[in-house]
Amino acid sequence: MGIDQCQGLFLEARPKTSSINYFLTKELSVSDTTTSNTTIKMYSTTWCGDCRMAKRWFDSHSIAYEDINIEEDEQAAEFVVKVNGGKRTVPTIIFPDGSILVEPSARELAAKFA
Q1: Environment class of residue 91 by beta-carbon count within 10 Å: exposed (0-12), middle (13-18) or buried (19+)?
Q2: What is the sign, positive or negative, of the torsion defined by CA atoms of 10, 15, 41, 74?
Q3: Domain that holds residue 71
Q4: Domain tally, the chain
Q5: pTM above 0.85?
Q6: What is the pLDDT of residues 8-65, one digit of tens each?
Q7: Domain Glutaredoxin: where (predicted)?
Q8: What is the CATH number of the domain that holds 24?
Q9: Which of 20, 24, 25, 108 could bond to 102 as cystine, CB 3.0-4.6 Å?
């Protein structure tokens, strides 16, 4: 388990079987992530299969989210790179509670809402 620093926030890596998961040990603010406190933000690309799966999962469970295409938003792309230790890994999903899932499986998404 490693600790990384991103924009003055400390991230605790929590290894999972199929994806990288991060939980922010400090609550995110609007200026840190360009997110509101009530909206799920999904950073994605159009070509990403995992992004399409996560969108289908949210849609099928009637869970609202904001989709941010990092190919069209340079600031969003920079944020994803910072959160993921220099990698443009998508989907990167930011939840209102400050937790982050990166490349989650359907099972991991379901567990988040259990």
Answers
A1: buried
A2: positive
A3: 3-112
A4: 1
A5: no
A6: 333 444 444 334 444 433 333 334 444 456 899 999 999 999 999 999 999 999 999 9
A7: 40-95
A8: 3.40.30.10
A9: 20
